[in-house]
Write a structure and sequence with these properties.
Its EC number is 1.1.1.179. Residues 48-146 form the Gfo/Idh/MocA-like oxidoreductase N-terminal domain. It is an enzyme of class 1 (oxidoreductase). This is D-xylose 1-dehydrogenase (NADP(+), D-xylono-1,5-lactone-forming). Keywords: Oxidoreductase. By secondary structure, the protein is of the alpha/beta class. The chain has two domains: 3-151, Rossmann fold, CATH 3.40.50.720; 155-234, no CATH class. Helix 5 runs parallel beside helix 6. The chain has helices at residues 2-18, 41-50, 65-75, 84-88, 105-114, 129-142, 156-167, 202-205, 208-217; strands at 30-35, 55-61, 79-81, 95-98, 118-121, 146-148. 40% of the residues lie in helices and 11% in strands. It has a six-stranded parallel beta sheet, sandwiched between helices. It starts with a helix and ends in an 18-residue tail after the last helix. The protein binds NADPH dihydro-nicotinamide-adenine-dinucleotide phosphate and the ligand O=C1OC[C@@H](O)[C@H](O)[C@H]1O. The site of NADPH dihydro-nicotinamide-adenine-dinucleotide phosphate has 21 residues, from loops. Residues 36-40, 44, 62-63, 67, 99-102, 104, 122-123, 149, 151, 192, 198, 205 line the site of NADPH dihydro-nicotinamide-adenine-dinucleotide phosphate.
Length: 235
């Protein structure tokens, strides 16, 4: 029951925080373009940008123009394009948000930085360590910012825990156990998360467990155990 109350409170807080607020923008806000009309866009970028003075979203692009136009119209975004390359060619965009399937993060981040844009890349930043290194090298070479959109790392609660761990006040960390689950049926079977050729899979999607462990104690040896169940009847 407490979970239901917590959930409803969350919805109420979210609704009141984003629906009634129009923050005036500063003279020179960061101008974002968005690569794809992904489902996560409103939660991850559109709503937060509405409540932030230093950011605006200029265009969204999708592989089909109609899809980009539909999202742009729904969320009051001024322009839409029918290809990602067309968006990257726009001179009035400072930064690009990349909520593509994981396997495409590296390719499009490098293209975007090559076109002079900073990149905010959805988690996980890449399909593997080699791609992550390529993104880092490109950011250094082009002088652009490449940031993985692991939003929890910016939360003050995470910083307090980190400062306590670092302080040694409670001794040293001997062992960390993390787990993350999605209820069966949360995602449709054709979701990108179930497609290994798009770098899907539980470890990629629920990579918070790795990023949190690394954030708190640095590189660590891990034992990984995965329960794979697509629906209630699966073994
Ligand atoms: N930070 C967070 O809390 C969250 C992060 N994410 C991350 O965001 C990313 C997107 O997730 P989500 O919004 O759920 O995914 P969606 O499937 O809704 O969006 C992915 C987008 O990628 C585009 N795309 C391009 N090529 C392909 C292809 N070959 N197959 C499928 N889609 C393609 C589609 O764009 P088009 O519109 O052009 O057709 C689609 O809209 C993932 O990296 C995920 O891990 C997701 C949820 C929460
Ligand atoms: O925050 C999240 O919750 C559910 C996941 O599937 C998603 O990709 C993740 O980022």
């Amino acid at each position: 029951m407490s979970h239901i109350a917590e959930f409803l409170t969350g919805i109420n807080n979210w609704y009141n925080s984003v629906s009634n607020i129009r923050i005036p923008k500063t003279a020179n806000p960061v101008r974002f373009g968005v690569l794809s009309a992904a489902l996560i866009n409103p939660t991850a970028l559109f709503d937060p940008v509405r409540t932030h003075p230093d950011a605006v979203i200029v265009p969204v692009a999708a592989r089909e123009l109609a899809k980009a136009q539909a999202q742009a119209t729904k969320y009051g975004i001024p322009r839409a394009y029918g290809s990602y390359d067309e968006l990257l060619a726009q001179a009035d965009i400072d930064a690009v948000y990349i909520p593509l399937p994981n396997s495409l993060h590296c390719e499009w981040a490098i293209k975007a930085m090559g076109m002079g844009k900073h990149v905010l890349i959805e988690k996980p930043i890449a399909s593997n360590a080699d791609e992550a290194r390529q993104i880092l090298a490109c950011a250094k070479e082009t002088g652009r910012v490449a940031l993985e959109a692991f939003h929890w790392q910016f939360h003050p609660a995470a910083h307090v825990v980190k400062s306590l761990v670092d302080s040694g006040r409670y001794g040293s960390v001997l062992f960390i156990s993390t787990s993350l689950y999605l209820p069966v049926g949360t995602m449709p079977r054709d979701d990108i998360r179930f497609k290994y050729d798009l770098a899907g899979g539980a470890c990629m999607d629920l990579a918070y467990v790795f990023s949190a462990t690394r954030y708190y104690i640095g590189p660590a040896e891990c034992d990984v155990e995965i329960a794979r169940k697509l629906n209630a009847n699966d073994e």
